[in-house]
Every structure is written in C-alpha cells, then in structure tokens.
UniProtKB/TrEMBL annotation:
Region (Disordered): 350-370
Signal peptide: 1-38
Compartmental location: Cell membrane; Membrane
Pfam families, A to Z: LRR_8
GO cellular component, one term: plasma membrane
Family membership noted in the UniProt record: Belongs to the SLITRK family.
Domain called LRRCT: residue spans: 198-251
Originating species: Phoxinus phoxinus
Main location: membrane
Biological processes, Gene Ontology terms: axonogenesis; positive regulation of synapse assembly; potassium ion transmembrane transport
Top-level taxon in the UniProt lineage: Eukaryota
Assigned keywords, A-Z: Cell membrane, Disulfide bond, Ion channel, Ion transport, Leucine-rich repeat, Membrane, Repeat, Signal, Transmembrane, Transmembrane helix, Transport
Stated name of the protein: LRRCT domain-containing protein
Residues annotated as transmembrane: 306-339
Length: 370
C-alpha cells in the first residue's frame, strides 16, 4: 500500500504549480473580460483610461458601462457635432476629458455639471461660435481649459466665474477682437494665457483688458503676443508694448458721451450681452446702483504704471534733496571762508595804521631839513 500511495502523492505535488498557473491565467482572463464587458465596443479601455478617439463617431457611446475607476476619456478626432445634456451624467470620477478635433458647434447649458472632479478639458479645434455662460458651472476643480481654434467672437461675462482654480487657458485662433476685464478677474490663480491669432482691435474697448494683462504679467503670469489688426497705425504691434498714453483719448470720449467710449445712452459699457438704456429718460445712477460688471471693469490704471509713477517721483524727490544738501553745504563752506577772511582783515588793520604813522614822521623830517 505504501508503494502504491507514494507515486500518487508525488503526482499531486507536481500538479500544484500547474493548478496555480491555471488559476492565475483564469483570473487575468476574468479581469480582461470584466473590462471588455464594461467598455463600449467603440473604445479601448484599461483600468484608468477609455480611448474612443479616431472612430468616426457621430454620437457619444454609452459611458455608463465604463469600468469603475476610469479617470480619462478621449473622444478626439471624431465627427461629433452635438452632445446631449446628459452625455456625461454620473461620471464624477473623470479627471480629464478630450473633445478636440470634432465638429461641435453648440453645447447645452451645464453640460459638464456632474464632472465635479474634472481638472483638464480640451475643446480645441471645433466649430464653437457661442458659449453659454452656464456651460462650465460645477467645474470648480478645473485647472486647464483649451478653447483654441474655434470661431468664438466673444467670451460672455460669468462664463469663468467658478473657475477660480484655473491655471492654464487658451483662446488662441478664434475671432476675438475685444475682451471684458470683468470676465477674467475671477481667475485669480491663472498663470498661462494664450490669445494669439485673433483679429484684435486695439481701441478703447480693449483698454481695460490691457491693464488686466499687465497686472497678470506683473504677478508672474504669461501672456503670448496680442497683435493688433486695427487701427491701421497699430497693425502688427503687440498691444502690450503700446504706451497707455495712446488711450488717453478714451477718457475724452467717455466725457463727451457721458459714459464709456462706444456706449450709447450715456451708460458705461459692460459686455455685449448687457442691454443699455435708451437716451430718452436716462436716469443718473450712483456708484452703488451700477451693475457689478461696470464696477469691476472701471478701475485705476495698471499697477505697473502706478509703480512707475512712484519710482519717478522718488527719483525726482531724491535729486531735489541732494541738490538742497549740496546747496546747504556750499552755503556753510562759503560762510566759514568769509568769517575767516574777516578775521584776517581785522588782524591786518593795526599794522596798516602803524605804517601810516611812520610815513608821516618821515615826511616831517624831510620838510624840516629842507
């Protein structure tokens, strides 16, 4: 019996490694099957990413079946022209979304409202011409936003209000000719701004935004070239290098129009979506009654200019002080020299009197001899 059982035990021991390897293969297959079962047929998925790029998609695939823990979704290089408002519902784990190189031309309000953890959003190279001011509501964690190579002519006031953590923004390659300062003031953490390849009109409508750009650069941010297309005498020049004194005529226009340059009805301009009252029955409003956008837009001149003024005033005051000290020193030296000269003169006067007396006695002796 012992002889018969020994080979059996030996065979069982030799079979254990094979069974463990088989179990490992089965577990890997089960994991792959689970991923494949949860991944849309149009995409390729792994534990962190779902890549649906370059599939000629005309609609967003079912994303509710994505594997748990998916953080990145690529939908670039497709034929998407519109998105349903619930396209990204229940996807709060997403951190990165790429919708670049599609044909998107109109996005519904609050499309990304449930992507509360999204930090990177790319809408580059689409056909967007208008953005709803509620589009980015809920994206409080967004750090990077790419809106370049679209057809945007304006950036509505309020669009960026909840993106206070944004550090990188691109609006290059659009149809922008002016921007409102109040639109960008909520971006307190912005460090990189791209505005190139736009038909900028460097007139009074861009003056306040120029001041804001100078403030951004002053605190260490980066802004690429903003080349003017109009007026003709500034064509090709970077507005950052245009002296602020060239915009002084804007103040005259404001005084003549009773408000902002280019505005109608005597009210300061706010943004293009704000209705302005007609000139008939216009009411003079106090500062507390003005819209918030007007209060935020009209600010003093840029920090750089203010600092330059302080530096120049300090230099002038320093020169004046040095001249005053030099004049005082010269006066003291001159006074001491004059006092010394007077003392020497007083010492010499008795000697001159004795010499005159001796001269008189000699004249008397000569006259007596004669």
């Amino acid at each position: 019996m012992q002889l018969s059982t020994a080979p059996t035990l030996g065979r069982r021991r030799r079979g254990n490694p094979d069974s463990q390897g088989l179990l490992g293969v089965l577990s890997v297959c089960a994991t792959l099957l689970q991923l494949c079962a949860g991944c849309p047929s149009e995409c390729v998925c792994n534990s962190l990413e779902a890549n649906c790029s370059g599939r000629s998609l005309v609609s967003v695939p079912a994303l509710t079946s994505l594997p748990e823990g998916t953080h990145t979704l690529f939908l670039a290089n497709n034929r998407l022209s519109s998105l349903p408002v619930s396209a990204f519902a229940n996807l709060s784990t997403f951190e990165s979304l790429d919708l670049s190189n599609n044909y998107l031309d109109n996005l519904p309000s609050r499309l990304f409202r449930e992507l509360s953890n999204l930090s990177d959003l790319s809408l580059r190279n689409n056909s967007l011409t208008v953005l709803d001011r509620e589009l980015f509501r809920g994206l409080t964690q967004l750090r990077r936003l790419d809106l370049s190579l679209n057809g945007l002519a304006t950036v509505p006031l309020g669009l960026l209000d909840e993106l206070q953590g944004l550090t990188w923004l691109s609006l290059a390659g659009n149809r922008l000719h002016a921007l409102e300062r109040a639109t960008f003031e909520p971006l307190v953490n912005l460090q990189h701004l791209e505005l190139g390849i736009n038909p900028w009109e460097c007139d009074c409508n861009l003056r306040d935004f120029k001041h804001w750009m100078e403030w951004l650069i002053y605190r260490g941010g980066y802004v690429d070239a903003v080349e003017c297309t109009l007026p003709k005498d500034l064509r090709g020049r970077d507005i950052r290098g245009v002296p602020v004194e060239m915009f002084n005529y804007c103040l005259q226009l404001e005084d003549e129009n009773g408000g902002g340059a280019g505005s109608k009805g005597g009210s300061p301009p706010c943004f293009r979506g704000t209705p302005t009252p007609s000139s008939e029955g216009a009411v003079v409003r106090t500062e507390t009654e003005l819209p918030d956008c007007v209060k935020q837009r009209y600010r003093p001149v840029s920090v750089r200019r203010a600092i330059g003024t302080v530096v120049i005033a300090g230099v002038v005051c320093g020169i004046v002080c040095i001249m005053m000290v030099a004049a005082a020193a010269y006066g003291c030296i001159y006074a001491s020299l004059m006092a010394k000269y007077q003392r020497e003169l007083k010492k010499r006067q008795p000697l001159m009197g004795d010499a005159e007396a001796e001269g008189d006695s000699e004249d008397k002796q000569i006259s007596s001899v004669a």
